[in-house]
Amino acid sequence: MRTHRGDRVSDRLAYIDQATFLSLQATDRSQLVQYVWVYTRPVDMERLRRFHRNVGHGFAGRLIEPSILPFGRHRWVAATGPAAPLDVDDVRAPGELGTWLDERSQRRVDPVRGPGWHLGVLPMTDGTTAVTLVASHCLMDHGASVRTLVDAIGDVPRDFGYRLPRSRTRRRALASDVRQVARDLPDFGRTVVTAAKYAYRSRKQISSNASRPQAAVSGPDGPLVLPAVSAVVDAADWDARASELKGTTYSLLAGFAAVLGERMGRARPSDGAVTLLIALSDRGGAEDRRGNAMHIATATVDPTSATGDLTAARAAVREALSAVREGADDKHALLPITPFVPVRAVRRTAEVLFGDLPVSCSNLGEVPAEMARADGTEADYMLFRPVDQGVTRAALERAGGQLVVAAGRIAGNVSLNVVGYEVGADDTREWLADKVVRTLADFGLKGTVI
Fold first, then answer.
1. Which residues make beta-bridge pairs with 420?
2. Cα angle 307-257-435, degrees, rounded to a multiple of 5
């Protein structure tokens, strides 16, 4: 095994990573990445154990060490090697795969105390095997995960060269954090001006969103595991349908998300449109160590026309992405103010900025074929599940529910992954699967549901 050791770079969290972690602190709700490999055969356990050893480097080989100052920038520290043992579960029936994936998604991860990630294996009675990796989104988004997992599969894990945890005395840490705050003050000042301009331009939207009444809770409060469903669609069928509807693979995903959003009660009462929050990666070269490297574009899509013609959806997505690339949508420019935002204000700020009942929509693009080879051979299916921990019924229903759609292309398939909850609905995996299958059928598509 070879290890790439990069030059020492700043161990300070980027502003976007600070914001991601602050959201976790404010809500006790943790966003995760969950990757799933499904093999219709037994896996090579020795090769899988090597993959497990290799994952704990690079983006996954670190944790967050919070600043001593309440408004200070946090640091990355080293946490290399396996974050937790490789878990091999007892044999189960294939029909229990979804339940097992949900269970794994709720097994604790902690970007500060660890483990920041864990890996599990499920052998099934028909000879099928599932492998799943769950990791904190604070450590790595999809782009960072791809780099980490491809390196691990290729036996070339990377060493980012971070210091060990608690390697600084309290006095040195305090002095260093104070100096960093002083260096950040010019960014903070510029951001205050940007925030004022943004608030003025968006005053009508902000006023409307801030005054939106919160939904009443429909049942007893308590922990909640959100329904999650994946559908694997033949990529040739997906591309052909996009072309027939005068769209692209990207606008087809947006159209699917909008129609599913309408089906789950997330259309705007004023005009029936659905607001999509589209993640747009801005990850740079090999030295980009940000856990999260993205902008969020906001598109408005009319679901009533999308199933027959994607022209409008295509234009809406193109306009939203152009606004981000050209700097017209400058919410990202507000990030330098993040360390100074009181924790209690974070949750409501996100609601005000992003609007009423949005649908999160992530196009993961063409995923490297190597990523499907957790045990050295290509998995039959690969899933990308955008799951959460720490969700409570009261918090979710006050927010009006949730819908997240993520899709990636790999091994000749489009892996379409949905996590959703509608206030007052059945909200079971079977209920969500029915919504997904019916929405695919609206577009003349079908897929293997997992």
1. 403
2. 85
